[in-house]
Amino acid sequence: MLVAPARLWLPAPTGPFEVGATALHLLDRSRPDPFTGEAHRRELMVGVWYPARDVERFPRVSWMEPAVLRRYLTDAGYAADVVASPLTAGREGAPLRRTGKKLPVLVFSHGAGDHRNGNSIMIQQLASHGYVVVTIDHLGDAYSRLPDGRVVAPTEQSLYPQDFERDARFVLDEIERLAAGHNPDVDRRRLPDGLAGALDVRRIGMIGWSKGGTATARVMLSDRRVRAGLAIDPPLLPAMDGRIDRPFMLMTAEFTRATDPAVRKFWTQLIGWRLNVQADGAVHSSYNDLQVLMPQLAKIVGMSDEELRGWTGHLNTARAVRIDQAYPVAFFDQHLRGHHQRLLDGPSRAFPEVQYLGLSAAGDTHRG
After folding, report:
1. What residue ranges carry the coiled-coil annotation (predicted)?
2. What pTM did the predictor assign?
3. Residue 307 has pLDDT above 60, yes or no
């Protein structure tokens, strides 16, 4: 008798709202695709996560679709069916929860060779607190599946941060269309009820992990539609010119101001509110879903403790989840909603492992 593979799990969000999710297929006809080289046809897949209602009859969204997960696992050297994809808290196509006000929007950019749900712990937490989060699959440097069934994986020649930046700026254009009541999906698939017209384009933030964090910095330098940026352990290369006068937060682990000249230089380019936090014992993937998923996989495949520590560092997994859930919500609540957050003021008894390596308010660029 065949035994079904063990299903991995993800922690649930803790916000007051249920979470809905949907996928959109976007097409940018203004530029060639750096992935395929085809002119006037830059394809993207994006996910939209949002506060939802009446979710019971809608299925939960997989962290990764089965065919994509099989490719992802085999590329990593594991058996294709060693595990089943975890299910997220997002309910596919559930109606948006109406609050009477338009909702702040966040754009998420993943790291090299990752996928748009790679930081779903953080993403669904933000959606459960009333944000619409638009997550990008940067095709050519992402694991994804298109509506026609094509499964795509990262190419040998990965995309540059500049390509991620162009993708994000195009997605900002499509967010404006969605906010105006239009359906940007190139295949015209039906949107969840209430989503069109519900976004507040005056309150847009951006988040990125690793290369996506570098892209976040680039977008903040080039596009003033983004009012606040959170970069999660970004390498910040190649070096960028210019200054950012809007709020910016760094969550560092391996790419730090102490060890990386590019990160140190970028810190001086932040002339508005800025904050750099770092969790003791964190490694690059500690602020990513892999911090939770790899210990589960390790038990199934017999991974050594030393190999597992390469993925999780010495940061306790449950504590990493709390950090991933608390700090992004606090940052965007303060800078997109105007609600002061004591968590951002300095070291917190609730998070003794988090170091505040630099903090300065607008106009005070010399502290930290």
Report:
1. none
2. 0.95
3. yes
